[in-house]
Design a protein that fits this description.
CATH superfamily: Vaccinia Virus protein VP39
CATH topology: Rossmann fold
Shape: globular
Largest sheet: 8 strands, mixed
Number of helices: 7
Order of helices and strands: EEHEHEHEEHHEHEEEH
Distance between the termini: 33 Å
Number of domains: 1
Strand order of the largest sheet: 5-4-3-6-7-9-8-10
Radius of gyration: 17 Å
Number of strands: 10
Strand content: 25-35%
């Protein structure tokens, strides 16, 4: 018997994700709350999925910021559009179905954000949509950084979250193309664990790197104060 996927409720919006291969998870929530957002202009969400990142960015920005999400999967694109339509920001969020590898952006963006697929050599998922959402074969890192280079404004930021080894690969591809790490946050599940994710913001100008660490749960396995503070505007429980 198939169990229905319940919606994910945030303080100001709800995300339905039963038609999406990848459900709302901690990675997207962390990135959506951590990434620096522009005061005005345009934002692009690459691999939008259910639309969670676009909705979080909309909550954190003014009406002067327009947000576009691009998603390869048709069902996820429609569900993201439905989620936006039920949100307070429906007039400034749009979702498009398309392949980032061939899509032509109509203009440049002041911020690009992505929780990208990252498995490149692991066993495939038995479900094609989930495999597509999880595997970098559908969006290789070298192709992603090439597209971001084309689409971002000179002063814009590209923010992403990835497992540590995958983030290192993406940074190594970006730096020879003139990218610099502006912000770097190592995410660890508990104080005694090594970091399992990096959140990174890249810019085109040389800069000092702001390096931080975020621990999700403290030594008592309760959510840490820093994690609660980061997600306080979104999580119902905080």
């Amino acid at each position: 018997m198939t169990t229905a996927t319940p919606p994910f409720h945030c303080k100001q919006f709800t995300v339905q994700h039963d038609r999406c291969a990848m459900k709302v998870g901690t990675d997207a929530l962390l990135l959506g709350a951590w990434a620096e957002v522009p005061e005005l202009g345009a934002v692009l969400d690459i691999g939008a999925g259910s639309g969670i990142l676009s909705l979080m960015v909309a909550q954190r920005t003014s009406g002067s910021v327009a947000i576009t999400g691009i998603e390869l999967d048709q069902d996820a694109t429609q569900q993201a559009a439905d989620n936006a339509a039920q949100s307070p920001w429906q007039e400034r969020i749009a979702f498009l179905q398309g392949d980032v590898l061939s899509w032509q952006a109509p203009s440049r963006y002041d911020m690009i954000i992505s929780n990208p697929p990252f498995f490149s050599d692991s066993l495939g998922s038995p479900k094609a949509a989930r495999q597509q959402a999880r595997h970098a074969d559908s969006l290789p890192f070298h192709a992603m950084i090439k597209r971001v280079t084309e689409w971002l404004t000179p002063n814009g930021q590209f923010s992403f979250i990835l497992p540590v080894s995958s983030a290192q690969q993406l940074i190594a591809l970006a730096e020879p193309l003139g990218w610099h790490v502006r912000r770097h946050c190592a995410v660890q599940s508990t104080p005694d664990k090594t970091a399992h994710r990096w959140m990174v913001s890249l810019v085109r100008q040389a800069c000092a790197t702001d390096v931080t660490t975020l621990t999700i749960k403290d030594a008592t396995h309760a959510y840490s104060a820093e994690y609660r503070a980061l997600l306080r505007d979104f999580y119902l429980r905080f």
